[in-house]
Amino acid sequence: MKNDGIHHFCDFNQIYLDSCEGYSKKAVPQKDPDESNPEWRITVNPAAELVGSPRLRALIDRLYHHQKLLTDFDAKQILSALQCMDPTAELLLPLLTVLSNATAYPSNQLLMREFRLTNRVVEMLPDSKHWPRSTRVILLQCIANMAVSSDNMEVMKLALNHIVSRLTSEDEMEVVVAMQALTNLSINIRKEQIPKFVPVIPHCLNRLWVRGEVNLNALRLLVNLSCCPDMVPYLLGNKSVSGLLRILDTDREEVLIRAVTWILCTTSAVDALNLTYDRIAEHNLDPFHNPSHTLYFSIYGPKGREELETQARHLLNHANKDVASKSARLLETLANVSPIMSL
């Protein structure tokens, strides 16, 4: 359920490479010539020459079409370009595309961390909100792909708030990619991260149904959120979705297996934490705090529970053994959850 660029070659000397990365050992004086200082010399920023040059185009073309694994020198050139490239630059989009594609290889992910490319991409995210749409989306996709590597989590967590804010974008593709990124970042939610993920819940529920179809991106993210037991009270306190349990009535196995998994994880948390409405009430987002409007009541209230049990029993004989097995576990776990009275 996890999801799944372009460069240019430049022949710069080591002084340039060091200074571009902030590692220069000796500052170059930026003042008028001083005869008493024979070491004075005028310098230019070689990275500025790299950006937009035929060399960068060639690097991008090489990495996009012929070379899958990055070299140390490739990483340095990409970093130099990203540090000074204008957001409207013609080559920024293909450069980020190359980088995004390169994340498919673990060795590239390692190299990106070592040469701070991962950090640089995350640093670009806050300012990208007003970038051209295609460049904005590919930067977010690059981050989503980098988030696949668990070793990137310490860097990726700095992007979390900005990714969550993209869920309110009017661009559907941007929202989809933001959900992919959040799905990859929510594999193992730490307790201190819970407040950052809580605002994600209503967006997922609001997008669970799209034009009469279950939104797989929203469902994947809901599964991950429910796998963190401490997230479940927040989840169940949210406003319910009309026809929620219809997600179990589908012929699409990729939807069905995740739907059963989501309800099973949620019910397991309710059982393990002995959750009752009293524990969930503080997270009720209904303006009038009406319990019957919560997700908790939709699933475990008399009507919802009866429908859930009926659906689960029906799925016991499903051809997909994973679906059948999880449905059996759901019924067993549900039996441990005390019924709630009609409100």
Can you give a write-up of this model?
- It is a single-pass membrane protein.
- It comes from Caenorhabditis nigoni.
- Keywords: Membrane, Mitochondrion, Transmembrane, Transmembrane helix.
- Residues 95-261 form the Armadillo repeat-containing domain.
- InterPro entries: ARM-like, ARM-rpt_dom, ARM-type_fold, Armcx_regulator.
- A hairpin with a 2-residue loop joins strand 1 and strand 2 (213-214).
- The protein has two domains: 1-27 and 41-185, Leucine-rich Repeat Variant (Alpha Horseshoe), CATH 1.25.10; 189-343, Alpha Horseshoe (Leucine-rich Repeat Variant), CATH 1.25.10.
- It has helices spanning 14-20, 46-50, 54-65, 72-84, 92-102, 106-114, 117-124, 133-146, 153-156, 160-165, 172-185, 194-197, 200-206, 216-226, 232-236, 253-272, 277-280, 295-300, 302-315, 321-334; strands spanning 209-210, 213-214.
- The protein is mainly alpha-helical and 343 residues long.
- Helix 13 (200-206) packs across helix 14.
- A two-stranded antiparallel sheet has the order 1-2.
- The two termini are 37 Å apart.
- The chain contains 20 helices and two strands.
